[in-house]
Design goal:
Radius of gyration: 24 Å
CATH class of the largest domain: Mainly Beta
Shape: globular
Strand content: 25-35%
CATH superfamily of the largest domain: Rieske [2Fe-2S] iron-sulphur domain
Number of helices: 6
Helix content: 10-25%
Order of helices and strands: HEEEEEEEEEEEHEHEEEEHEEHEEHEEE
CATH architecture of the largest domain: 3-layer Sandwich
CATH topology of the largest domain: Rieske Iron-sulfur Protein
Number of strands: 23
Strand order of the largest sheet: 12-16-15-14-13
Length: about 400
């Protein structure tokens, strides 16, 4: 809570507005405070503290109930808007207790959901006009997947200043910082579409990057831009996190070395170094693969392992589906009457993300990051397959 009291009143993007479609409940952080973001059936967007005031369970683990959010622990339901308790299942005949969720300001603008933390008792800041985003409101833009990076805000901003747009050379791109920390990357020769990034300081050492590409594009062009930018953002994330790990290891080595030195009384006195602010190195994105172009497809980032037949067990419906080597998992599921929500069907958008209960997926998407792939507990069924003879999916 200290960070919120000290933070000046200003608005921060928390997620793309589309992340709340179909009753989705979005969990995020801002300055170290856990937040839950959801949209009621009447369209109202809510940003709440991610904690049930009854027993402290995360509300983001709960259930969307139209105009209320229900905690999964004891089923208490809290109303959209003021966050007041509306029902307690254990006492259906009794009046709801006078208890409410801690709410934050919420506004949906420029294709994102925003909130404004402020000092206790301070008024909420007026939402600013952000010219760069005003010209890129949906549907006249291509939303990019939000990317979480284990690096501080300054390091991520510095890395984005070296971002190279798809179809552009490093020397032909420039970053311009606009209102409220919004960064616009432009191609100086006009050969590539610009991109706009909005940064969210999730907590110390963790930043989320939201982005859009302004302009009207057909479905194929939109998909190509999403793929290309995701590859570059993933590369930037990996480089920053590798640099952070190397720095931590170097500091640990220095500590181990100092602990093995001779006792202090046997060492000559030495000057104490002045404190130095450590900044992550600049990540130049001109080393991105030349294959990044509108013609890119998910297979360029897929495993080189050959397709093999496998069997999928469906945990909820109780059936099984055999997937031949020449048939995608999505097509095999559809052929057996199993419907999975999809959009791009190219491993980019994440719409068909499905929990994996058993077995090892063979990931062939560009949506999951390295840690999500390593966990092996979810997969995009439109392009990915199985590394093991069988998979058990939560379908």
């Amino acid at each position: 809570m200290v960070e919120r009291r000290q933070e000046p009143a200003r608005w921060y993007a928390l997620c793309a507005a589309g992340a709340l479609d179909n009753g989705a409940i979005h969990r995020t952080e801002l300055h170290g405070e856990g937040l839950v973001v959801w949209r009621a059936d009447d369209g109202r967007v809510n940003v709440w503290e991610d904690r049930c005031p009854h027993r402290g369970v995360r509300l983001s683990l709960g259930h969307h109930r139209g105009d209320t959010l229900q905690c999964q622990y004891h089923g208490w339901r809290f109303a959209s808007g003021e966050g007041a308790c509306r029902a307690v299942p254990a006492h259906p005949q009794a009046s709801a207790p006078p208890i409410r969720v801690t709410t934050w300001p919420a506004i949906e603008r420029y294709g994102f959901v925003w909130t404004c933390p402020s000092a206790t008792g301070a008024s909420t800041a007026a939402f600013p006009l952000i010219d760069a985003l005003a010209a890129a409101e949906p549907p006249a833009c291509v939303p990019l997947r939000s990317t979480t990076i284990d690096a501080d805000l300054a390091s991520v901003k510095r890395a984005l200043s070296a971002y190279v747009l798809p179809q552009a050379d490093a020397a032909e791109c420039a970053a311009f910082e606009c209102e409220r920390g919004t960064l616009t990357i432009e191609s100086l020769d006009g050969a590539a579409c610009s991109a706009i990034f909005v940064l969210q300081p999730a907590r110390a050492g963790k930043t989320r990057v939201h982005g859009v590409v302004p302009g009207d594009f057909d479905a194929e062009q939109r998909l190509a831009l999403q793929r290309a930018h995701q590859v570059r953002l993933n590369a930037m994330r990996d480089a920053l996190e590798a640099a952070r790990e190397a720095l931590a290891e170097a500091q640990a080595d220095a500590l181990r070395t100092s602990s093995t030195e001779a006792p202090a009384q046997n060492r000559p006195p030495r000057a104490q170094p002045s404190p130095v602010a450590v900044t992550m190195p600049l990540v130049r994105m001109d080393a991105a693969p030349s294959a990044i172009s509108p013609a890119i497809d998910a297979s360029s980032h897929a495993s080189s392992e050959e397709d093999s037949p496998f069997t999928v067990h469906l945990a909820r419906s109780g059936g099984s589906v055999d997937v031949p080597a020449d048939t995608s998992l999505l097509d095999a599921l559809r052929a057996h009457g199993v419907e999975v929500p999809t959009s791009c069907e190219q491993g980019v958008c994440g719409t068909c993300l499905t929990p994996v209960l058993d077995g090892e997926p063979l990931h062939r998407d560009v949506w999951l990051d390295a840690r999500e792939r390593a966990a092996g507990d979810c997969m995009l069924v439109c392009v990915s397959r199985a590394r093991t003879p069988t998979l058990t999916l939560d379908l």
